[in-house]
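Re: iron/sulfur cluster structure - here you go.
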Amino acid sequence: MSENFDDLYEQIRKGEIEREDAVFLAANPGYLFQLADELRKEQKGDIVTYVSNRNINFTNVCVGNCKFCAFREEKERGYLLRMDAVLSKVEEAVNNDATEICIQGGLHPDLTLPDYCRIVEEIKSNFDVHIHAFSPMEIHHVARNSGMSEEEVLKELKKAGLGSVPGTAAEILDDSIREIICPRKIKTEKWVEIIKIAHRVGIPSTSTIMYGHIESLEDRIEHIFKIREIQKETGGFTEFVPLKFMRKNNELGRMVNREVSFLENATVHALSRVILHPYCVNVQASWVKLGVADVQRMLHFGVNDLGGTLMEESISRLSGSLAGEYMSPEDFERLIKDVGRTPKRRDTLYKLL
Ligand code: SF4
């Protein structure tokens, strides 16, 4: 570990941070926040990006049992969108200037690879839009339901037109925690394996952490270091998104029974910037999880991206998010300019539009 602040700063700028440096920084938030802001400025300048997109949760039927989930339903009570309903949502989004369609759903017991490929193919043959879809957990579920490997599934989905994969289902990449909060979800090693396969076959992904439940500060730091190691190897992550745990209407929320503080939110975002430097240059804050006022404040703690317009957001809403389901480009532009930064619309892969 570095012996003084100047040495530590130099070490981090070179991408050589160690775990104990991150623990030290978390205990010195003033210094951490300043460092994160400087690194953000160095890498991204004053530009703050957002993407015009739409979420489509095509089914809530799920065989999973994650304790933080208020979205899943049994097959008898759940829904599965028909293809014409999916296409009309895409049409509405494209007419509203969306460049990305984000598709995720529950783990429906009856769906196999052809069903997933059909969603992608039908959208791609009707619209010129990027498809960002199917988490590593969903990829594993499709592979299991179809008697195939995850690599075969990813290659077929890419052939169908899949553009990138959401790095969700990561939660905390520690099996002792996963065993408690999402016992049926893929283990850490499998999540890492699927993400690396995706990157290897040419499908980039985002990366996430779900923080603010039973994990410790050290668990958060370890998780971000795991993301860093993957990124050093593959370069396939487009961004890192800290996702605050939403505690309403779910079993884990009743177990945890406390709110995540503003200091914790700021610390997680700043640590993400500092630990991932210079390998992953985009750190996103989620307006759905944090609300508009706090997401704006995160721009001072290492954040350079505010995610998407979404148009439709049901997963967080069911767990107590009050941020709404749509943030217009005008709202993004205003809140970014309000803190003296420059808003830019981007595509999914961070090309400025
Ligand atoms: S988080 Fe996803 S996998 Fe887990 S229960 Fe909910 S819908 Fe199913």
